[in-house]
Amino acid sequence: MDRVDILAIGAHPDDVEIGAAGTLLLATKRGERVGILDLTYAELSSNGTVERRQQEAAAADRALGGITRYNFGLPDRGLEAVKEEAISRTVDLIRQIKPRVVLAPYWQDRHPDHESVSRIVREAVFSAGIRKYPAGLSLPAYRPEKLLYYFINTTVTPNVVVDITSVYKEKMDVLRCYRSQFEREEGTVATPLNNGYLESVEYRERLFGQQSGVMYAEGFVSATPYVLDRL
User: Fold this and answer.
1) Residue 218: enclosing H or E segment and its boundaries?
2) Which CATH class is domain 6-222?
3) What are the residue boundaries of the structural domains of the chain, listed by start?
4) The whole model's pTM is what?
5) Per-residue pLDDT tens digits for 6-37
6) Assuming Cys at both sites, which of 78, 99, 209, 210 could form a disulfide with 217, CB separation 3.0 to 4.6 Å?
7) What are the DSSP E strand ranges found in 83-123?
8) Is 227 exposed, middle or buried (0-12, 13-18, 19+ CB in 10 A)?
């Protein structure tokens, strides 16, 4: 597999895009290589089908500027039951593609799968750097430089922000690729996602931007001090 600069990981197709599409758009525009890993196919989602969600994910990939997407096909709402497998496979992927930065969901969220992925990724990033950690493939240890947490449903004060003003409209176009989730269509079930969710994303990005002196920003949390060599 080819190396990537950023690997963004979520439970379901659309998780990463909700929290970090703007940042990923900026990265691809700089010529950086981006990967998205979905741990499940979101087969238990109230609306849409797995097939349609995959088509929407492919459209989102194109809108992001051409990225590599992986899916482990682990059970939706069953990640805790396969936690060790999920960690081992994520370790293998990290060691294969050697991302400089890994993005994971913030560790507190109303959806238990998002919290599960946060824990899985934290352990995988740490274990990937342990030489004797026995993952599924015989690959040398590798640890990414940064692990940052993005927001899906939770909003707390970030300690890292990215100015996405120049690509904000493109981010919203990426999210609109997931019509089955964010639009009310005939026969759909009412969910938080199709009841003003995109407006709440806009509010969050405007709030982070206002706090940072820009129009729109995506917020992230670093669980460890963020090191700079100069101010």
Assistant:
1) strand 217-222
2) alpha beta
3) 6-222
4) 0.95
5) 999 999 999 999 999 999 999 999 999 999 99
6) 209
7) 101-105
8) exposed
